[in-house]
Write a structure and sequence with these properties.
single chain, 354 residues, alpha/beta, seven-stranded mixed beta sheet, 16 strands
Length: 354
């Protein structure tokens, strides 16, 4: 039986390197792709995996070259942000070629765009496409699915990220700058997705001990507003990010630090699912992911999904899917927990009414 070929677009960035190393540790065959041929060759030499690694140069504006990558590969993991710039062309090439696709986007407009433009093509060609399967966006989506499982009607899902020691890569810095300058924000309220200006505000989220209450940026522009309502019966989705994520001045001045220093992050992702009766009545539940090195957690999530799809253990339907649509949320998170990505805790707040 021929082993599947995994393409990594943007392979020589920090996330791409983590993805490549994890796939090689699992014995997989890689196609490293991106715009810089010299950087691709250097990474292939560094990985030192012989004929298990090959390279292919393709820029995001070269449709034929992208198509060659997607035709050769069984699955592509797209790691080259900002996805507002790189995402559409890579996703379109994968959908048309029938190549399964996963990306590390958190940008809600990009994720919505993949659903809007590639659904019919992916269904026709048999591709499974999961945009936003990374630390921000993907893990929040999966945790919301695990927390909300079994609650019949949910008024509000609150997803809160507490991050300490975050050191942004060049791609992450460009993404953050784009997102926080964006005036056309996507939000999900009263059972519908809305686009328009939203006034930023400060909020306090009650993280469980030992973290405790934290001051938050709200709303945080991440893709769960697009994905969570696809698999959770919810009327409102609130997203928050701790102020501490950007408190250290070096957060935005860290493009060239080493991988070991970049790994020194601590994080908690917490979700509250509040039933239709509100916090004082009706069903509700909560959960959290706690861990270190958010970059590795995101890389493990995308690799685990890609390998499952390549091995025929993925979703039973094709097309564009939210992470929590593609996989049963709690079992998927438990497998990532066993891989050391984080610790998962789930707890009922009130009776779920099952």
């Amino acid at each position: 039986m021929t082993k599947p070929l995994f393409a990594i677009y943007g392979a020589y960035g920090h996330t791409g390197r983590l993805v490549a190393s994890e796939l090689l540790a699992r014995g997989e065959q890689l196609l490293l792709a991106g715009r810089d041929a010299e950087a691709l060759r250097a990474l292939a030499d560094e990985l030192d995996a012989g004929d298990r690694v090959r390279t292919r140069t393709a820029t995001v504006d070269d449709a034929p070259a992208l198509r060659e990558v997607m035709t050769a590969a069984d699955v592509v993991i797209h790691c080259a942000g900002p996805f507002a710039v790189t995402g559409a062309s890579v996703a379109a090439a994968a959908a048309e070629a029938g190549c399964h696709y996963i990306d590390h986007a958190l940008e809600p407009h990009h994720v919505k765009g993949v659903f809007d433009t590639e659904q019919a093509t992916a269904e026709r060609t048999g591709a499974v496409m999961i945009p936003g399967l990374s630390f921000y966006g993907g893990l929040g989506d999966l945790l919301a699915g695990a927390v909300a499982d079994g609650i019949a009607g949910i008024d509000r899902v609150v997803i809160a990220y507490a991050v300490h020691g975050w050191r942004l890569t060049t791609g992450a810095k460009n993404t953050a700058s784009h997102l926080f300058a964006e005036t056309e924000r996507l939000t999900f309220s009263d059972g519908a997705l809305h686009a328009g200006y939203v006034e930023p505000r400060s909020a306090v989220f009650p993280f469980p001990p030992p973290l405790g209450p934290r001051t938050m940026i709200a709303p945080f522009p991440s893709s769960e507003v697009v994905t969570v309502p696809r698999h959770v019966p919810v009327r409102n989705v609130d997203l928050m990010l701790s102020n501490s994520a950007f408190e250290a001045p070096e957060a935005f001045e860290s493009e060239h630090i080493g991988a070991a220093e970049r790994a020194g992050t601590d994080f908690t992702i917490a979700v509250q699912a509040i039933g239709e009766g509100g916090e004082g009545g009706g069903g509700g539940a909560a959960g959290q992911l706690t861990g270190h090195d958010l970059w590795r957690a995101g890389a493990l999530a995308s690799v685990e999904a890609a390998v499952r799809i390549a091995e025929g253990r993925g979703p039973t339907k094709t097309g564009v899917l939210a992470p929590g649509e593609a996989f049963r949320a709690e079992p998927f998170l438990r497998d990532l927990e066993r891989l050391g990505a984080f610790t998962l805790t789930l707890a009922d707040v009130t009776d779920k009414g099952r």
